[in-house]
Amino acid sequence: MYRLILISFAMVLFGALDAWGAVPVPNLKPGTEIASPSVRAPGARYFQAEIPYPVLKPAGSSLQHQKPVIVIDPGHGGTDPGAIGVRGTHEKTITTKAANELANRLRKSGRYKVILTRTDDSYVDHDDRLRIARKGQADLFISIHADSAGKSAKGATVYTLADRAKGRQKRIVNNQNWILDVDLSAQSDPVGDILVDLATRKTESQSDAFAEILLNELSGKVDLIGNSHRRAGYYVLLAPDVPAILLELGYLSNSEDERRLQTKAYRDKITSSVERAIDIYMSQR
After folding, report:
1. How far is CA 235 from CA 34, 61, 168, in A?
2. Residue 275 to residue 267: CA distance in whole angstroms
3. Over the stretch 40-98, which tens digit does the pLDDT of each residue have?
4. DSSP H or E segment with residue 116
5. pLDDT digit string (tens) for 231-255?
6. Which member of 1, 19, 143, 197 lies 3.0 to 4.6 Å from 246 by CB, making a disulfide possible if both were Cys?
7. Number of neighbours of residue 132 by Cβ within 10 angstroms
8. Cβ(199)–Cβ(180) under 8 Å?
């Protein structure tokens, strides 16, 4: 009878283990431990398919002695002319010239590593512009434009990311393997939300700081449009870990702006102001 009871107990025990999904323990050499994964499987919250959660940037990836990296992005290009001025000037022509002039100025100073998203009249997708900045570990991203906004709009404008664009920014994080300065691998989704928000707030704060410095340097040298620090959801401003601004040099829909932007002397006033702003911004980091 006792034997029957023991057999019944063993059957119940093994049945419970099977129900719990017990996995046989492999034969291991003495002293060997089973390695456990350090990163949980990605959830749908931030990443799709098999794209991993963002991880902490590797230690030493940005050496202290390296020059700050400035990425300059000439707007439009190739089959995309951008705005067309009252006298027929293409925005892409002005942005290409100004971007190359700014790059040459910064390189001549010897203080920065400069990357251009394009150097000629070619078209670069918005995704690729951001990838270039992030691959180059940009410390600052400057997108240069010369838009159209009616005959009365005149002067330079600086844009940073608008709060209403946060949804678009998170969708980008969801679709690309962003490498943030936060480690989400061991965090729940609510905590991940908070950490991503903190990382993006830091970037936005840096973008706003540079925008204000730049506007201060431009003031008195060139015309500024009213409410000159504006916010928008432009795609090139959406990288969550790269401080970025979009600089409107002027408005080609205004005949005076169009005329001035065609001259190197006027563009030099702008690019020299941008250089001084970069110097000040980098000295305060």
Report:
1. 46, 26, 9
2. 12
3. 344 444 444 333 334 434 444 444 548 999 999 999 999 999 999 999 999 999 999 99
4. strand 113-116
5. 998 988 988 789 999 999 999 999 9
6. 143
7. 18
8. yes
CB 51 within 8 A of CB 177: yes
Prediction pTM value: 0.74
CATH superfamily, with its number, for domain 69-283: Zn-dependent exopeptidases (3.40.630.40)
In angstroms, the Cα distances linking 23 to 8, 16, 62, 101 are 22, 13, 44, 66
Give the whole-angstrom CA distance, residue 196 versus residue 54: 10
Residue in this structure with the two tokens 């932007």, named with its chain if needed: 261
At 65, the amino acid letter reads H
Which residue's structure tokens are 């003031």?
A: 219
191 within 8 A of 258, measured Cβ to Cβ: no
Q: Which two tokens stand for residue 247?
A: 């600089």
pLDDT category, 282, cuts 50, 70, 90? very high
